[in-house]
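Suppose a colleague, Dr. K., hands you the sequence of a protein chain of 621 amino acids and asks what its three-dimensional shape might be. Before reaching for any lab equipment, you can write down a predicted structure in token form. Begin with the sequence itself:
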Amino acid sequence: MATPLLSLSDMGVNLGDRWLLRHVDLSIHAGDRLALVGRNGAGKSTLMKLISGDAEPDEGSLWVSPGTNVAYLPQSPKIKGSQTLASYVVQGLDDPSQIHRAEAMLMKMGMDPARMTDGLSGGESRRASLARALVSKPEVLLLDEPTNHLDLPTIEWLEGLMKAHQGALIVISHDRAFLRSLGTGIVWIHQGKLRRRDGAFDQFEDWSDAILAEESVRLAKLDKKIAEETKWSRQGISARRKRNQGRLRELAVLRQNRASEGGITARSLSMETGPAEGGGQVVLESRDITVQVPKGNPVDSLSADGMTTDATQAQEMRTLVSHFNALLKRGDRIGIVGPNGSGKSSLVRVLLKQAPPAAGYVKLGFGLLPAYFDQSRTLLNPDATPWTTLCPDGGETVEIAGKSKHVTSYLRDFLFDDYKMTQRVGTMSGGEQNRLLLAKIFSQPHNFLVLDEPTNDLDMETIDLLQEVVGDYDGTVLIVSHDRDFLDRTVTSTLAFEDAGKIVSHAGGYSDYLNRRVKTEARQQAKAKKKSAAEKPRANRAARLSYNETFLLDKLPQEIAALETFITKGEAQLADMDYFAKDPDGYQKLADKIGTAKSDKAAKEDQWLDIEMKREAIENG
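The predicted structure, expressed as tokens, is then:
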């Protein structure tokens, strides 16, 4: 079997009162593309930090093959200080003089290398951090929620970039479409245990369900045996105490094992919206509305009173939405998609009459009760607690689907431990705050669910349940999301932001919209090509490769293959730890040669690719 790039052996992380991870064994080989999945808090990000060397385990070890470069994109990249993007990205290289490589990577990602890091948006910070991770062409790339807060075009671009990445890849993501596109294996963390399965991500649910069912049966048998042994221990034990001390010790071991396992079937998330209450058949109507923001202001800073002042009107405005007409009826299920900055959230606030349009008007239907999930979570007071968030006027009950429920029971349904119920909201994770916001809006009367990026920071299990809840909801649904799979499973029509503030309606979910867009673009390109061919005189086909380029096109693949052979044989030799003990200097020299060979191989591959692309361009005219 090929030598792994890195391996974790019997690794564990202890939190004091419990083990977050225990007995973790994992090997990463060249070509691995692994989806790392598990509930929020299961230890996914911690495992990433252990692999990258950013955290130390409490037990076990990490081995990294000499010359292997590991790059890590954390879930929330933080760029310290004020510097140019090129200066920030070049820090991912061992040689800071190779600033041209940093600049080329940034330009490939559509970013200006001279731009300062001050004022970058969340998506821009993530893109710059990804450039820093990729610039060194790492053998192992670790991505923690890379699609969070990115728009759909950027996610599709990132997919293409990751498919072209030649090293091993480990990805934490709640985006099923992203994982389906990239993953060739699954690593599942559950109850502190790590399980791996090679294969497509679509196989995850069947595989994990089978494990859960098997564990449930095994634990039920163990519980039954403990109950039987406990019953025996209470019946006449004093008469045969000496003879049965061994059996009592076995009972103690059974109880200890059962307590340490905890049970793979952990407490489940429960969620319900209750029925849509009242309201008429018309939800809202928009007539010829235009939405604008002052140029230079954040796109989604539109406020209830920020569009009508003389000072604002004197500013130069930027149009986000132009002449938009819509009629929403009860039972409609609509998704909104578009690039970051296109004005999706601003449109939602105008439709809910939380901000006025620059032109046109919105008319709300009779008895409309919106439940609005705002992606910026403005409904949550960071100084409040989950308890006071749900019961702001005091008390200890909430009303769900017409029935009173104690607030502690309701919060447990959303996976809040008792001690969390009196913790400040501002100290909670993004996933916890999103669950709390869902709990809050679902506890209020409503007949119109408006969800703006509801899947950010949630794990896949919570997203799956939210999808089922939304799917069963008997009211009207409006969803802004970058999660393609979530949209496909929850909406029946899509509003797509296009150029110049134009919004186009499409039947179906995101995949249906994407298929139509691809076909439309293909038709337009075919027409343009046909027109160009008709109008263009015969081109001078004298353009050709130089003699040296033709020579390299044939020679480089041979040199690349030779380097690949040397690297493979050398890494096999380095894997023999007796070699290090016998000749540590020779071991280090060979490791250095392999590192140089990898750099030469990457440079030759880039050179060959440039020439090959030029050859294809010449052949295609």
